[in-house]
Amino acid sequence: MPPINVKDVVLKLKGCSDPEIGINIVDLGLIHNIRIDEKNNIEVTLTMTSAMCPVTSVILADAQLRLEKLEGVGEVNLNLVWEPAWCPEMISEEARMNMQLL
User: Fold this and answer.
1) pTM (2 decimals)?
2) How many C-beta atoms lie closer than 10 Å to residue 23's C-beta?
3) In whole angstroms, what separates CA 80 from the centre of its chain?
4) Domain tally for the chain?
5) How far from the centroid of its chain's Cα atoms is residue 62's Cα?
6) Domain for residue 21, yes or no?
């Protein structure tokens, strides 16, 4: 079983976008932590832009499915947290620049 690393996880999660905003969840700043153990079990701690986000279940399901497609992956656990609360300053510089172009 090939080892999975954080870069593999980040690349998969960059394919998962917030459908309302059109920015992937990594660049949006929703990912707080990624842990991978020796059995390739993945644990991602993430948040949403708001506790009232109407697409939370869509984003979580998309992220789960993408990570489960990694070769050799064990269990995938997504931990949704609300602290620290998301704020616009968490958006990556690249995403900010792309937003200004729109």
Assistant:
1) 0.92
2) 20
3) 10
4) 1
5) 9
6) yes
